[in-house]
Each structure stands twice: as C-alpha cells, then as structure tokens.
Amino acid sequence: MNLSLALQIQNVSPDVNLLLILPELIVCTAGVIVMMVDAFARPRQRWMTGGLALVGLVAAMAASFWMWSGWAGPREAFHGMIVLDELRLGFTFIALLVSALTVLVSMVWVEGENLPAGEFHSLLLFATSGMMLMASGGDLVIIFLGLEILSIATYVMAGFRRTDLRSNESSLKYFILGSFSSAFLLYGIALVYGATATRTGLAGTTNIAEIANRLDVSLYPPLLFAGAAMMLVGFGFKIATAPFHVWTPDVYEGAPTPVTAFMAAGPKAAGFASFLRVFVFGFPFVATVASVQGQIHAAWLGALVVLAIITMTIGNVGAIVQNNVKRMLAYSSIAHAGYALVGFVAAGATGDPVFKSEALSSVAFYMLTYAVMNLGAFAVVTLIARSGDRRTDFEDYNGIGFQSPGLAFTLSLFMLSLLGLPLTAGFMGKIMVFRAALNAGYYSLVVIAVLNTAISAYYYLRLIIVMFFRERTTSWSAPRVPASVIVVLIITVLGVFYLGLFPNRVLDAFKTRPPAVMATR
Amino acid sequence: MLSAILLQTTNVPKTVGGPITAYWPVMIFFVFAVIFPVLPIVLGRFLRPSIYGKGKMRPYECGIDPVTEAHDRFTVRYYIVAMLFLIFDVETIFLLPWAVIYMGNDFSFTKFALLEMFIFIGILIVGYYYAWRKGALEWA
Questions:
Q1: Could you tell me the residue ranges of all domains in chain A?
Q2: Between chain A and chain B, how many beta carbons pairs sit less than 8 Å apart?
Q3: ipTM of the complex in this document
Q4: Residues of A near B (CB-CB distance < 8 A)?
C-alpha cells in the first residue's frame, strides 16, 4: 500500500519532454537498428552497419545543432534530470565527433580483423549514448546511469579481440578497476543523498542544483565531505588523473587501437563533462569561506590543484620512458587530463558567471582539440600497427618518414599539436586553459603546466626523430590506406588547423549564455 | 565525530530517522554473524586432535574417490541462459511499478505509460531476437 501511494504522488506530473533528449534517443535507436541489421543481414551485407552508425551519429549531431541554435523551450526536463546548456551541447558534440571518427577508423579495420562489425558498431553507439547522458544529466542518478552504459560497452570493446591475450588483459583490468571506481562514485552519491536530508523532514536529493542549495542546511556535513571526496575519486578514475591512473597504460596498450583512440578521447571528455557539472555546479563557489559550502568548495578545489600537478607530472615523466607508442600516448593522455584539470580549477575557483563560463568553455574546447588530434594520431597508429596490433613499438617507426611520407607527416603534425606548437589546435587549447587559470589567479599552477609542456617535447619529438632520422633495418611495406581513414585524416588535419587558427567561433558556441541554467534555480 | 552524529539525532524529527540508531539491530546481527562461524573454527583448532592421513587430505567428493582433476573445462551455456533470464527478470521488476502507476488515480498518465512500456518491451524483444539469431539458444 505504501508503495502504491508513494508512486501515485510521483504520478502528478511526469514532466516528459522527449525533444530534450532527442540526440540521445537518435543514437540509441541507431544502435538498436544496427544490432538488428547485424542479426538479420547476410554476412556479405554486414558492412552496412558502419554506414548506418554514421547516419545515426550525423542525425544526432544535426539534432544537437538544432538545440544549440533554435531552442526556445524549457531547458530542463524530467524534473531536472536532464538539463540543456552549452556545457552539455559542447560535450555532446565532442562525444558524437569522437564516435563518428572512430566508426570511420574502424569500418575497414573491423572487417580486416575478422571481428563482428555489427556488434562493434552497436556497442560504440551505446557507449556514445552513455557519454551523452553523462553530459546532459542534471542529476547524479542520470550521470551514474550514463557512466555505466558507457563503461559496460567500453569494457566489451576493450576485449574485442577475443583470442588476443593482451586484449583480454586490458578488458579485465579495465573491468575490475572500472567497476571499483563506479562503486566509489555510487557510494559518494549515496552519502551525498543521505547528507542532504533537511531538518524540516525533506528526504535527501540527487539533483545537482538542489544539492548546491542544501549544502548549508545539510544535516550531516561530515557525510557531505566524505561523499564529495568519494565522487572525486570515482571521476578521477574515469578521466585518468594520477594517482588513479595506473590502469590507463595497460588498458590503452592492450585494447585494439581504434578502441584505444575512442577510449582516450570519448570517455575522458564525458568524464570531464559530469565531473565539471557535479563539482562546479553542485558544490559551487561561495564568498563566505566559513560556511559548510565554503569549506567543501575550498576542500575540493585544493584537492584538484594537487591532482592537476601530480597528473601532469606523472603523465609526462611516465611517457618519457616508454618504448611502445600506444603506451606513450596513454601517458600523454594522462598528462592532457592534467592540463584540462587546470581549466577545471579555474572554473571552480570563481563565482563570476563570465569568468566561469569562459573557463568551462576552455575545458570543453581543450577536450575537443585533444579529441581531434588524438584520434588523428591513433588513426595513423592503427594503420602502422597492421592486423593484430603487431607493430606498436618505437622501433617499428624507424625511418618510415621516407617510405610513407604522407603518414609520417600527418603523424608528425599530430605530435606537434599534442605538444602544443603554435598554429595548431593543441596550442590554442592550452592557451585557453592557461588563460582561464591566470584569470583566476593560479600563477604557479600555470608555471608548472608550462614546465610540463616543455618536458613533453622530449617524447613527442622523439617519435618524429625516430620516423625521419633513423635507419630502418627491417623491411617496410607501406600499409594500404582505406578511403574511410583518409576521410578521418583529412577531417582531423583540417580540424587541427581550424581550431588552432580560428578558435573563436567554437569557443563562443561553448560559452554559457547569460541565463545560466544550473546556477539559478 | 561519531558521537557528534549520534548526539545530533535527538533534534531530528522522526521522518528523517536517526542515522545510526536505526541500524543497531543490523550491526548487532552483523557482529553475531561474524562470531558465529569464526568461534567454532577457532575453538576446534584448539580442541581437536590433529591426525593427517592420505584419505583424509583428499578433496571431498561425495565420499567417492576422485576420478579426474578439478580443473576441467565446462560449458558456459548456463551462463548465457542465466543472462537471458536476467533480462526478463529485470523486465518484470520494471513492469510492477509501471502497473501500479498505470492503475493510478486519474489515468492522466495512461497513454504515455502504455506507449513507453511497449517501447521498453520492444527493446527487450530486440535483444532476445538478437541472442536467438546469434545462436545463444542452440544447445547442440
């Protein structure tokens, strides 16, 4: 009886607005359709699945652009479970772009490896829908749901080469550590829910905006601290910040290369989306430091500064000693998470909506630039690795600069962009993030980040030197470059230059418009 | 800090519930649950005579002498069936609150709820057909 009464009260207004989750719905539907086509099509027609996945992703992108430009309706649905703001749209765009590029990279690869194409593409689409939910969730429950949809699909994709031991190892490690971190996150959510119960008898809340309102009237402040700390650990795992990064090199090395490309760019960006939303909007800046809210804010901001420093340093120092290109790129992805955390700190440190929106857009922009150059680099690595990912050591790149100049030059471009050379996307991303941190007054953090960039020059340039200045001792036959990968390389090279030369349009699109959705409620 | 939390409970209205006090029975139960198996093992360690023989140290298998190694391959078919079962088990769990709401007070929710549940079941059926087509139900 109690159950039915409680449910009937909820019945009052379901606040359904399917248009607000249109991109997610399109991607999910495309995933189901791809699954069905895979089940019913004859084996020779399986190539269709990649094309269908692309169609779905492009349609979702169109829907999100429509929401970006012409949306006049409500900016919340399902009682605040789904929100619509530029933070969400920016990260939705990144998720869709990463997924589309991964489909293009993997279309031919998946056939060549004799792997089930339909399964791969539907898993990719489901993972994408999870990433989008993580960006659009205004409620801790939706964020956790999105995270799990994403993670479970990614665990399977990491172990997709079933007969390869390295792939199995990668999948298992990712699964165990990933579920461990999900448990941390969930426990944090539960503690925050319990701590936000009020004296007047209201139950706790998982709505992020509501959490921010209740911080100072919380019944059990110590639980709030514990909950925020555990969520920090959970998200820290997902975006691979040190000291929660140990899974990254092994998982990235063992997973099939296109999957690594996806994992390094997509889930990391999605993790940042919800990390930003939970901490910047759920435990926001407040002028009175003595209050509970002020204490929590100071605590997580301080922790993030330390995390950013450790992450950058460990990522860069670890990358120096690697002899495997995929491992090197894995450590570099840790380092890049550190740079993005610098922007995160800036976004959290200010209460001024203009500065905050600038810092948030700088982090989103950074993740976009990282996604573009990273996917480009991994596309080349996929081609050079050949079937079974056999050639991923630095030695395998010896002297290919003169045998396959096209591939070598594009890879060099992405390396320079990852390093942050002017005119490239990586430079502009770093500039934006560092400028936000300087505006917020974190001078020493920026100095450390710049020093770290100098360290990173060693291993990015090392790959270029290996490709152009070493003699090749073994024979080399240039890999056949499929048309779809050529498309990826064209998009990413143009993207690197576009974002590096004309970043303003993208940055403006990522900025929150004045009536900030989450801040006022 | 614990005592601070415990003291706070006196001011809290009953609707929220004391955070710790309500769990005392569970905690006591937990303590007993730990003691109950550990105590006999520890006691037995000190009380029993230790005599080892070949027959005694052999892995126990219904009293019959073991025929093969314990490390053997076995089929994962049951695992797949268990997964398929789980899908429909969870479906039932979701159907229950849906049915309660559907029969709710004013039927304003009805059309949406009906459509939504058909979509939900449809997705599950898609998954089921997928497993079927992929040969998860082939037993031979």
A1: 11-510
A2: 56
A3: 0.76
A4: 3-4, 7-8, 10-11, 14, 16, 32, 35-36, 38-40, 194, 197-201, 203, 219-220, 222
